[in-house]
Amino acid sequence: MHRLPTRVPRVIWGVAASLVLATAAAACALLVHGERVALAENAEKAVRFVAGAEASLNRTLIGVDLLLADMAEVLKPVVSEGTLDGPAAARVLKSQVNRNLLLRDIAVIDGEASVLAAARRDTVRLGMPLPREFVQAVTTQKVPAMVVSSPLLTFSTSERALYFARPLTLQGDVRLMVVAEVPLALINAVVSQSAEVPGLSVTLERDDGELLASLPMADARLGRRLDTPLDATWTDGQAHRGPGRLDGQPSIVAARPSLYHSMSVAASISAEAALAQWRQERRVVLAIALAFAVTIVLVAAAAHWQLLRLARARQEEHRAKATMERALSSMTDGFLLCDAADRVVAWNPRYLQMHPWLQQVVGAGVPFERLADAACKALFPDGPAERQDAWRDKRLSIHHSGMGMFEQELKDGTVIHVVERRTPDGGVVSVFRDITLAERELSRAKAAAEAANLAKSQFLASMSHEIRTPLNGVLGMNRLLLQTELTDEQRRYARTIHTSGKNLLALINDILDLTKIEAGRMELHVAPFDAAVLLDEVITTVAVRADEKGLALTARVAPGLPAVLLGDAARLRQVFFNLIGNAVKFTERGSVQVGLSWRARGDDRIELEFEVRDTGIGIAADVLPRLFERFTQADNSTARRYEGSGLGLAICREIVDLMGGRIAVETDLGVGSSFRVSLPLARGQTLPDTADTTLHAAHDMQAGLRVLVAEDNEVNQIVIRATLEQMGYFCEVVSDGLEAVQQVHRGGFDVVLMDIQMPGMDGQAATRRIRALDGAAGHIPIIALTANAMVADRESYLAAGMNGYVSKPISAKQLHAAIAQAVAVAA
After folding, report:
1. For the ranges 279-293, 349-363, 449-463, 561-575, which has the lowest average pLDDT?
2. What pairing do the DSSP bridges indicate for beta strands 782-786 and 751-755?
3. Is the pTM of this model over 0.85?
4. Of the candidates 531, 624, 545, which has an alpha carbon nearest to the alpha carbon of residue 583?
5. From CA 733, how far away is CA 743, in angstroms rounded?
6. H-only helix segments in 331-384
7. Could you give the CA distance from residue 119 to residue 587 in angstroms, rounded to a whole number?
8. Of 55, 562, 592, 748, which one has the fewest beta carbons inside 10 Å?
9. Quick one: which of 767, 744, 753, 683 has its CA closest to 723?
């Protein structure tokens, strides 16, 4: 037995584990490197940013400091004898503010923090929110320098601002101070440089940690000291890892002191923001690594599975080979298999038993020609060389064709039947069967089957005749009874008899149709017909039953439907009647909708679509696969409730298949069903003259028509006589074929209704005798009246010389039409 070695899975999964570990290691290395790169990039961003912020802040501070330092010279023109001209000074100060967009206001303040002059009027009126300590610190400086206040709320706008002040000495050594107001928002704009760095926060701090400005704005912390002041180790302009200046979260911090050493600017980038992009990339890397790992595992599993399959396949191959060898050994037929190169592959013992001369020749890889040579010598040991060569060439030719079949008689009288077929790979398989006894058994079986088939056909023909003959009397007498005076109860009984007889007739017709289908003798009689008129006839017939059940029966014909089509109208009517009748039968309430549509197919052909949709009981899903089989209904309860043989749908399917169409069903149990039939039909040119025209045209010439009826059944005689007399015909009845011939020979009759099965001389023999008569008697119209309804029967009647055919039970309408047509043709 072939099994998978245990070391093979170990190697596969070992390699897979190594690759998975390598993938994990590579992913980890890539993630560590990516983290380092992300932190380094953000550290560089922080360093670059704080350098630019420090430069911008220095420019701003120097500009404000120079402006304040020059204010003594600027204000000289408005100072007289040590006294400042307030309105004139305000105009000078306002011009300075207008030239510097950073400043909101400039004011001159005395030692008591009173505003002597300011660029904005509301500042003179409201004053500046400068603490007294700040004023004293500025005015008492020994060496004049610019002093920056804490963030203060302005009186006029309630906005936070920084106040930059320098001492101011006017004429007469008057000690004052000049103050510039800069909104905190503008300080933030200077420091931020409009840079957009994710997770960045900027702080402007004093050496003692007091927060002067921040971005984003931290109003609650402005003017207060931060947790840890910046010392020299943090203000070297390099990036450091530590808590953020505003939120205390792990961050990358870079700080630089301004030229005014009391202030420093710091930039903090949170580690969370710095690593955000890296974390996204980490997810991608991990996903890719996981995908690689899963792929490796799947590939390993697939390889393992494939090797297991291979091992199982080898086991199956070994098992199949053993099974084939056992099967070949048990075969009663000889077996030989050759490959595409025509060399022997396999054979069985029976082959050697049939050809014992090959015992020493046959073997794997032996060319088939050697087998043919050995057989030729064994079969014709003393024959001429020409005969041996001819047999050998013929045998090789049949073998090489791959489709050979021949018989060979051996020396002991055994006849071997050989069948050879080409295999898909180009080889040839040969089967040798001893048919010496098999031929006799086959001949006997064939004869028995033919006899059984003939017996069945005879039985069906006999039973059809035996049932139809009394049924003709039942329906005929019932029809006559319904034409008499009856009470309501009697009429109801009579109609019940009529309905039961019709149902029995329909069952007989279905069985006969089924017999035709089984025998492959159902034929289509293609002729022009009007599909809309055909449907209307069926709807009119079924509407009576629908009205009795209170159902809404509607029909819709698609516009543009061709008026003339070519097909078997009778068989199509049978399909329409079965499907619509079933819909009415299996629908208790609601409606039955019938649709007839079409679509062009080209080449002057159409696809006729016929659909019947009902709101009936529906069909269970497990029944659908066998719905169109013979003798099938949904279940036994359906058969008991609705009756029926279960042949209707099977016959419909056979008819539709014969017409080259399709039939399908859609159903929902308890809701309803929809049957759809599609038929390919050709367009026709014109319709033949209608039967009504023929009947009306012949009716006048039939007044007083003399009809001879040959019928041996007394009940049927009464029915036919009454029927003909109601049509206005003169009727004479005879009981056998010989008497019918004699009456026709005497003359005086216009048409003969001839029963087929009669004592003495049957209807066909009588017809042939009549056709042999001289003169007009030999040409009298003869219509067959018979209970035999097989197609072969009808053909034999016409071959005997009859002009028409009416099956029993006889329909008065069909009989009248047949007589009218026969008389019209004879005229």
Report:
1. 449-463
2. parallel
3. no
4. 545
5. 10
6. 349-354, 368-379
7. 101
8. 748
9. 753
